[in-house]
Amino acid sequence: MLPFKCAPWLARNTSIVMMVAGLAGCSSQAPSDTQVNCADIAYSVYDPVEPLNRGVFAFNRVVDDYALAPVARGYRYLPNFFQTGVHNFVENFGEPKVFINDVLQGNPMRSVNTLGRFALNTTVGVLGLIDVSSIAGIPRHEADFGQTFGVWGIGNGPILELPLFGTSNSRDAAGRVLSFMVDPLGSNSDTVETLSTINTVGGIIDGRAEALPMTDSLQKLPDYYSALRNVVAEHRAAFVANGKQGSADDTQPQCTGAPADGF
């Protein structure tokens, strides 16, 4: 079952793939002095329509078990250079929306960092296939509209299990809707449309492949639904704290996946 963003389901820049990639990053990156640790962030889970959410979750899991996850597992057998190129391209294609959210969050250093990365990787990095910026010491960070709303002080709201998009909360769901409406690269160019299609397909598969270790682990627990729901809530709380911190460094929150008290 897809946890949510990482990703967009229909595009990498929507939340389902985004969230999947976020969780994958949480489970794999080494902590640094500037990073927000999920274990240090208080988070809550408000799930007033849990029976309904569990029903949608069951549908989402069937779709994932029989369609997306098998493709993602096959993708992991492809050469590393191919997977790296796809990942870099997808990340770069999403930078304009990261930039918009950096500005909306009042993070000038982050916005300059993102703009510089996008310009360098799109040109020297051949449309982002090569992450030249990271090689040059310009780290990447994530930002989305759900995080922006959180930085503005908007609360989580109730848990929502959305068909195909997975676990979320009302604040992040609203952020997904806004993400669909915002198209910083425009849609009047056939080239951009083609790149967007490649980004959509590549982002979904790459994001799901990154999340496989996390979801495979959670599926071994007695209640996959609550375990995944709590990891999402934990990650998003740390992600908002990360946005408030405003560091231009790579500050992916280090999520442990530990369930919240009472679950």
Automatic annotation (TrEMBL):
Q: Which GO terms describe its cellular component?
A: membrane
Q: Does the keyword Ligase apply?
A: no
UniProt KW keywords: Lipoprotein, Signal
> What InterPro entries is this protein classified in?
MlaA
Q: Where is this region: Disordered?
A: 243-263
A Pfam family annotated for this UniProt entry: MlaA
Stretches of Polar residues bias are at: 244-255
Give a GO biological-process term: intermembrane phospholipid transfer
Residue spans crossing the bilayer: none
Q: Which domain of life is it from?
A: Bacteria
What family is it from?
Belongs to the MlaA family.
- Protein's UniProt name: Putative phospholipid-binding lipoprotein MlaA
Q: Which organism is it from?
A: Pseudomonas fluorescens
